[in-house]
Amino acid sequence: MNIEQIKEHLLQIPPDFTALADIHLSPAEATETGITYAAECWAETDCIEDEFSSDGHYDWCWREPDLIPGRHSTYLYEVMEFLLKFGLDPSYTVSGDYGLMDYICNTVNGYVAADTLRLLFENGGDPNLLSDSGSIYDDIDFDIWFGALEMEDRRRYDSFVHCWMVMMGFGGKPSNGSSPLDLFNEWHPDIGTIPFELNRLKDHRNYTFGISHITNRGDAPTIHIFNKRTYWEVARI
Predict the structure, then answer these.
(1) pLDDT digits (tens, 9 = 90+) for 110-154
(2) Within 13 Å of residue 135, how many CA atoms lie on the same side as its CB?
(3) pLDDT band, residue 80 (cuts 50/70/90)
(4) What's the CA gap between 32 and 69, in Å, rounded?
(5) Is 3 exposed, middle or buried (0-12, 13-18, 19+ CB in 10 A)?
(6) Strands 182-183 and 233-236
(7) Which is higher by pLDDT, 16 or 97?
(8) CB of 105 within 8 A of CB of 163?
(9) DSSP the chain
(10) Cβ atoms of residues 161 and 211 within 8 Å
């Protein structure tokens, strides 16, 4: 089976993993296939709103960020997990510009992007990966700041914030050397308050966020991160 046939099986909805049980891919082929799949997931994100009338557009944009069934991105995590077995390179970039993790960060479907990003970091991905435009962390950091001011799609912004959390959980930080967040204490019922550590954001689903007009770093709105179960504020920027 050649690589184009493999891509066809993966791009079915759902992917036909059964037909791919005995295939072999080189690391380069696995990475190429991963880029193709992730780019398809990003492309469908920009088409979601087109499926709804203009009257229903904002109703769709402000929905809870639940997983949308029956899309390529619904299976993004499973496909990347499959390709990692063949040596997919999580930090691969195309001509020094956009790379696999950029496509994944821009995929909007529940929290599948953040979950998949964690999978890639657990398998060698670099949360401070440099590109022609700067670093992957700086890019998403800007999107977080800009989105707080210009948010048009809650699902998209929520997905970005959870990707940002995962990056910081694995050591992502601004390229200017500043601290990513101001950290506070986190409360646990069995041991009381303990200092919050950024690596806990790897478990991004345990945390949520809010936006306020409190001045913290410059004139931008302040983003507060909360423990989802206790509602204690653990960090802010």
Answers:
(1) 999 999 999 999 999 999 998 776 788 998 888 888 888 777 778
(2) 15
(3) very high
(4) 25
(5) middle
(6) antiparallel
(7) 16
(8) yes
(9) --HHHHHHHHTSSS---GGGTT----HHHHHHHHHHHHHHHHHHHTTGGGGS-GGGHHHHHTS--PPPSSSGGGGHHHHHHHHHTTT--TT-BSTTSSBHHHHHHT--BTBHHHHHHHHHHHTT--TT-EETTEEHHHHHHHHHHHHHHH---HHHHHHHHHHHHHHHHTT---TT---S-EE-EEEETTTEEEE--GGGGGSGGGEEEEEE---SSTTSPEEEEEETTT--EEEE-
(10) no
Rounded to 5 degrees, what are φ and ψ at 187?
A: -100, 135
- 233 exposure class (CB count in 10 Å sphere: 0-12, 13-18, 19+): middle
Cis peptide, bond prior to residue 221, ω within 30 of zero: no
Does the pLDDT of residue 53 top 50, yes or no? no
Look at residue 73 in the predicted model and tell me its pLDDT.
96
Non-local (6+) Cβ contacts of 116 within 8 A are 76, 77, 80, 104, 107
The token pair that represents 85 in the structure block:
């077995």
User: What does each C-alpha distance from 17 to 7, 21, 22, 82 come to in angstroms?
Assistant: 11, 6, 10, 9
Residue with tokens 């990692």: 84
Q: Whole-structure pTM over 0.85, yes or no?
A: yes
Per DSSP bridges, beta strands 192-195 and 185-188 are antiparallel
